[in-house]
Amino acid sequence: MALQALQSSGVALRRILSHFPEELSLAFAYGSGVYRQAGPNSDKNAMLDFVFTVDDPVAWHSKNLKKNRSHYSFLKILGPKIITSLQNNYGAGVYYNPLIMCDGRLIKYGVISTSILIEDLLNWNNLYIAGRLQKPVKILAMDENVILRSALDKNLKSAVTTAFLMLPESFSEEDLFIEIAGLSYSGDFRMVVGEEKSKVLNIVKPNVAHFRELYGSILQENPQVVYKTQQGRLEIDKSPEGQFTQLMTLPKTLQQQINHIMDPPGKNRDVEETLFQLAHDPDCGDVVRLGLSAIVRTSSIRQSTKGIFTAGMKKSMIYSSLKLHKMWKGWLRKTS
Fold first, then answer.
1. Cβ contacts of residue 256 below 8 Å, gap of 6+?
2. Under a CB-based contact definition with an 8 Å cutoff, are residues 107 and 118 in contact?
3. pLDDT tens readout for residues 86-133
4. Burial zone of 282 (CB within 10 Å; 0-12 exposed, 13-18 middle, 19+ buried)
5. DSSP character string of 181-240
6. pLDDT tens column, 195-224
7. pTM score > 0.90 for this model?
8. Would you state the pLDDT for residue 48?
């Protein structure tokens, strides 16, 4: 029955995909409408979230404006070039159209340039769509772009390494997956004013098997970890040498943020020197978390501000009220 439901879900998602221009290097669905979540986000009719990655955003938006003009806010009158400029140069490099009815389901879809996504996957410039892809998603379309596929894999490995730095020497699979799922929420202002506080736990608890499928081979091949699959336990190298190796493989933007946090005024130390010092610091994990927060806070505020224009004022208010309603439901569940 579960397999049949999953197959049915896949067909339904691909039917929705057929309403959009086909030129996609990657398309995926994510969130509570695709993978069951605990808590107030467990509604089987929850809004479906999609991301479409395109090589040529101007051409894609041009075609989509002809097919689905009503999806866009007032910005549609400015044309595909302005829409693409807003998509690429502001916020987190993604353009969202929320609260769209498609095939009888309420959906939200974001459009991002392939080149910008690759940069985010490799360097964590925004850790926005890269963060979505650190959690289980349902891939609906993917072309043979070798660079994109390699960047997707690198993003997962970076997520594991970053989580290692913030965990103790020994921990459970669930501990690891909770840490990974929380990376892109660290510093996100919406976790204070709009998102339910236990969101990360609600994502991981029902989906441990999906996280294991996503990260299992990476953990088994990592020379710095002992992965006891039968017990669901892991042990990692927490020596200064081990932590330095991990720090040196972090995405570039995170390394730069760490350097900015630790570098005293006037010192101007290079990144490697800073990371070497941090590897010997008992507060290493806390500094890494501060670096993450600095990336996520900036991108989440900018992207949410951009959303007021891309969605339009009316949709933005409705979407925000839905988010606040979910938070309120979560609070009621905890206090009842």
1. 271
2. no
3. 999 998 999 999 999 999 999 999 999 999 999 999 999 999 999 999
4. exposed
5. HHGGGTT-THHHHTS-TTHHHHHHGGGHHHHHHHHHHHHHH-TTEEEETTTTEEEE--SH
6. 545 788 999 999 999 999 999 999 999 999
7. no
8. 94
φ/ψ bin of 112: left (φ > 0), alpha (ψ from -120 to 50), beta (otherwise): beta
- Residue whose tokens read 């959690």: 135
What are the structure tokens assigned to 104, written together? Answer: 């009888």
The closest of 142, 178, 122 to 55, measured between CA atoms, is 142
Contact 181, 294 (CB under 8 A): no
Which amino acid is it at 134? Q
Question: To 5 degrees, how large is the angle CA 93–CA 290–CA 211?
Answer: 65
Distance CA 204, CA 190 (A): 19
The gap from C-alpha 46 to its chain's centroid, in whole angstroms, comes to 18
